[in-house]
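A note on notation is needed here, since sequence and fold are reported together in a single record. The reader may check this reading against the record printed directly beneath this paragraph.
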Amino acid sequence: MDFVWVVLALLAAAAGGWPVTAAVLRLARAVENSGPPFSEADPAADQNLDAELASGSRADPGVIRPPGSSAAPGLRSGSPVPGSVLRGGLVIGVLERLAVAGAILASEPVAIAYVVAIKGLGRYAELKETPAAAERFIIGTLTSMLWAVAVATAARAFLL
């Protein structure tokens, strides 16, 4: 019977984290822009905003640029194509939450450090090139991990 609860906890951590993370990212954008939250519940919407910021077609509210400058700061020739900024985030997030919840359920919280290190090193080049993506990466990662820890901790308390 415990096996069923562990599987359900892992599924809840993996699948339930996306809506929570997307909502927190929309809230963060709304607070930053002092406007209403982004109305779409589309995971690609956040990626599209990063692409607009990287291409310079939309101003980053946190960056002050000289008049007449349209390029995003730090974006050089040879940078990732704007549409590919932080690609694969949805799949990476699911795997991240599975690993974090699994680590908590297996009483190996030290494994969470490996997840953070792998994710950060894997994204380092993209994050260095796009400051707006770096901020969203931190917010999304923390939200996603907190969700996975909360679900796994609740399941662990129930199982003991």
